[in-house]
Amino acid sequence: MLAGRPVAPCYTRRRLHVVVPGMPWAAVERATVIEIEGLSKLYARDVFALDDITLHVDRGEFAFLTGASGAGKTTLLRILLRQELPTGGHVKVDGRDLVALAAADVQAYRRALGFVFQDFKLIPRKTVFENVMFALRILGVPDVQQRRRTFQVLKWVGLQHRANAYPVELSGGEQQRVAIARALVNEPVLVLADEPTGNLDPDLALDIMNLFREINGTGTTVLVATHDRELIRHVGRRAITLDHGRLVETA
Amino acid sequence: MIGGLKYFLSEACLSLWRGRRSSVLSILTITIALFVLGLFLLLSANLERTVSEWSRSAEFSVYLRDEATPIERGAVERGLRADASIAGVDVVTKEAALARFRRDFPELVPATLGAPGNPFPASFEVRLGSSAVNASALETLATRLRTMPGVADVRYDRQWLDRLASLIVFIRWAGLSLAAVLVLAAGLTVTNVVRLALYARRDEVEIMELVGAPMSYIRGPFVCEGIIQGGSGAILALVLLRAGLDLARPPLAAVASGLVDGNAIQFLSAGMVALILLGGMLVGCVGGLVAARRLR
């Protein structure tokens, strides 16, 4: 359990993941964190990265986004991070319409999220402690609280003893733990992870997945993109499968 | 607010240190540009002051005929004193003029001894006003005085000073134009140096964007880096100017003794110093902003 982390409201009631074609957008329940309706992303003429995707992820849910390379997992995550805009359809995250989101509000939107990438994306010239604390600093959290909260989160991921190390001095698993700590430190409503275990051996991958499970256990919604079917089977949560940009299964 | 500034400053200093070679190049470019600007400002300010002093002591003398009557003399004197651009009038009698000549040129005294009577005319020596000296108005006055009865000649040697003043204006504009080109070059150098720093840290910038750092937070250190480069260049330029002036004073005093008092050459005024310093920082700031503008 994440020490000192206030427990977010955890919705135990799961809605049915059945989308009725033509269902009005406004009728979707607000217990949903990710609301995607008819989403498409066209990169070139007739080359759809995403084609008419409709899916919902509930508050407090842990879901996998899976599919072969090129299926559209990363494109979907990039749209959810508002790095890209869809060509068509609607996307809402925690009630925010990402298509209508003004450029000036994008950074504020991202501050409410946590993200974890395959290549960790840590700032090499900052220590572990500074990398994690940075996410709080930009929120304007007072210094003392920044330090206390950073220490708590590092302790939770088991890296408090490496607080003064630089990313280059850490193993891949440790670096990913730092990235997870950074994703959590601002208590996000949603954590997005793109192939977070892609650079790790199977044992470390399971460790990282257990961390995500614990995060989810506090009520935080988690969406993990991975092509590792074995890992999904092991964790045993909903898998949203994409194939050539189309949603083929959600089970 | 203060925390943010501290962060910008520390990040900017770190980045400058990391790219110290290009930072030094950038600072030196700004130094050269502002040194040239400062040099021209220094030259034109000192020349202007000198010319203004020379103008005040410019000779304006009205020579009288020996046969001029007291009434004619009185009319000339009244005409002079009535003019607003004239600060004062000294009467120099024939005897006083001869005495002054003998005092100033003792080696020529024997030549005057053989001359019949006193060859020097009486005159009015005019002191011109300090500020509102209008060259054309004085020229008109001189022309009018020449036609007055009892006046033998009017000497007015201000024309060359006016030409000198025009030359100073030209020097100032030439200096400002050259400095403007150099300042532009300096601005472009800062832009490119900051852009290089930005390129070197593009991964970091991407991470900051993903974490949701405000754009001001991402751009701030780069703009701060530009301001530090500009400010450092300006300070260096001012130090070099001051040192150069101190070194140049003795030889200048030796070369131009009699014309210019080497010790009277003044450094830039406090306003000018502030202008150069702020100008340097502004150039750096604009350079940093232009470079960081590329971030979405």
What does this protein structure show overall?
The complex is a heterodimer of chains A (251) and B (296). Chain A is built from 7 helices and 10 strands. Chain A has 251 residues and is of the alpha/beta class. The model of chain A is unreliable at 1-30 (pLDDT under 50). Helix content of chain A is 30%, strand content 25%. In chain A, strands 6-7-8-3-9-10 form a 6-stranded mixed β-sheet, sandwiched between helices. A 4-stranded antiparallel β-sheet of chain A has the order 2-1-4-5, with helices on one face. Chain A has a domain at 32-61 and 71-111 and 221-251: 3-Layer(aba) Sandwich (Rossmann fold), CATH 3.40.50.300. Chain B has 296 residues and is of the alpha+beta class. Chain B folds into 2 domains: 2-53 and 162-292, no CATH class; 59-156, Alpha-Beta Plaits, CATH 3.30.70.3040. Helices cover 71% and strands 8% of the residues of chain B. Chain B has 10 helices and 4 strands, in the order ααβαβααβαβαααα. Chain B has helices at residues 2-18, 20-56, 70-81, 94-104, 109-113, 135-146, 159-200, 202-211, 215-255, 270-292; strands spanning 60-64, 86-92, 123-128, 151-156. Chain B has a 4-stranded antiparallel β-sheet. The radius of gyration of chain B is 31 Å and the shape is elongated. Chain A binds chain B through residues 81, 83, 103, 107-113, 115, 121-125, 134-135, 137-138, 143, 182, and chain B through 3, 7, 14, 203-204, 206-215, 217, 296.
Topology record:
The complex is a heterodimer of chains A (251) and B (296).
Chain A: E1 32-44, E2 47-58, E3 62-66, H1 73-80, E4 88-93, E5 96-97, H2 106-111, E6 113-117, H3 128-137, H4 143-156, H5 172-185, E7 190-194, H6 202-217, E8 221-225, H7 229-235, E9 238-243, E10 246-250
Parallel strand pairs in A: 3-8, 3-9, 6-7, 7-8
Antiparallel strand pairs in A: 1-2, 1-4, 4-5, 9-10
Helix pairs in contact in A: 3-4, 3-5, 4-5, 5-6
Chain B: H1 2-18, H2 20-56, E1 60-64, H3 70-81, E2 86-92, H4 94-104, H5 109-113, E3 123-128, H6 135-146, E4 151-156, H7 159-200, H8 202-211, H9 215-255, H10 270-292
Antiparallel strand pairs in B: 1-3, 1-4, 2-3
Helix pairs in contact in B: 1-2, 1-9, 2-7, 2-9, 2-10, 7-9, 7-10, 9-10
